[in-house]
Amino acid sequence: MRIRGVLAGLAALLAVTATPAAAAPANVEPAPPGVNDWSCQPSEQHPTPVVLVHGLGGSAPTNWAYLGPKLVDEGYCVFALTYGRPPLVPPLTGGFSPMEESAPELAAFVDEVLAATGAEKVDLVGHSEGTVMPQYYLKFLGGADEVQRYVAITPLYDGTTLQNTTELLDRIAEEIPVVGQIPDELCGACRQFFKGSDFMQKLNEGGAAVPGVEYTTIMTKYDQLVTPYTSGYLDAPNATNTVLQDVCPNDYSEHVAVAFNPHVADLVLNALDPANARPVRC
């Protein structure tokens, strides 16, 4: 289930058709249909709003074009931000700022969601960098008090063994062509992903998992950016680790494709509502 080539089309389509909700905060970019409805009030069935956190090179409308509307259709109040976009970086592309600079953007966004919905906590669903940067928010910016569940798609708690920033950007550019326009020096987050980086060491000191947050990790054996893919395994009592191919052996989705994958969507839904979990039909 590979989707090379479709993301650029999705970005163009959403840039034309998606518009922010009238009540949205000023810094919120376009989002997929139903996402960032600031009048949404959580239901009794789904009382916790969901905040979607995109990966490196992604954005609210592109990374979540599939999963965002699906969660809305399931009755969730769903919100998504685009973060970490320095000047000169193309629109609909984010995650390039150093992650300690992006984390306050997430913190402020979550506060806006809580204020708008009246909820006490949110659930986070992150993809790629959206599984790393929020860890800084949880550990150092008080986010653990505001987050109930954290569903991490293709996480990399132990970093990636890719050799350098250029290799990382080149591999992402294979999936998201616009990333090929980003010079190395504009990607402050890139070097932070590497195994053993100062950022990863700080993030994992005392253990990657934050007490009180319910973690679910979803990995794919065919991840070409998180190497090895087992870097996404979280060894903690409050974590459930899932490898996509252990559920659906014939699913060959790689790093980007998982964000548009119905099997992964089912796993996310089950993680958000474990009391009503449904079988994943492969």
Task: Supply database-style keywords.
alpha/beta; disordered N terminus; globular; Rossmann fold; about 280 residues; six-stranded parallel β-sheet
Note down, in words, how this protein is organized:
The chain is α/β, with parallel strands linked by helices and 282 residues long. The protein has a single domain, classed as Rossmann fold. The protein has helices at 6-17, 60-63, 67-73, 99-117, 133-140, 165-175, 198-204, 244-247, 262-272; strands at 50-53, 78-81, 122-127, 147-153, 214-219, 239-243. It has a six-stranded parallel beta sheet with strand order 2-1-3-4-5-6, with helices on both faces. Helix 4 (99-117) packs across helix 5 (133-140). The protein is globular.
Average of the residue pLDDT scores: 87
Query: Cα distance, first to last residue?
Result: 12 Å
CATH superfamily: Alpha/Beta hydrolase fold, catalytic domain
| Unreliable stretches | 1-22
Largest sheet at a glance? 6 strands, parallel
Number of domains: 1
By DSSP, the count of extended strands is 6
* Strand order, largest beta sheet: 2-1-3-4-5-6
CATH topology: Rossmann fold
**Name of the top-level CATH class:** Alpha Beta
Total helices: the number is 9
Order of helices and strands: HEHHEHEHEHHEEHH
Shape: globular
CATH architecture: 3-Layer(aba) Sandwich
Helix fraction, binned, reads: 25-40%
The fraction of residues assigned to DSSP E strands is: 5-15%
Radius of gyration, rounded?
Answer: 17 Å
Please identify the oligomeric state: single chain
Q: Which structural class is indicated by helix and strand composition?
A: alpha/beta
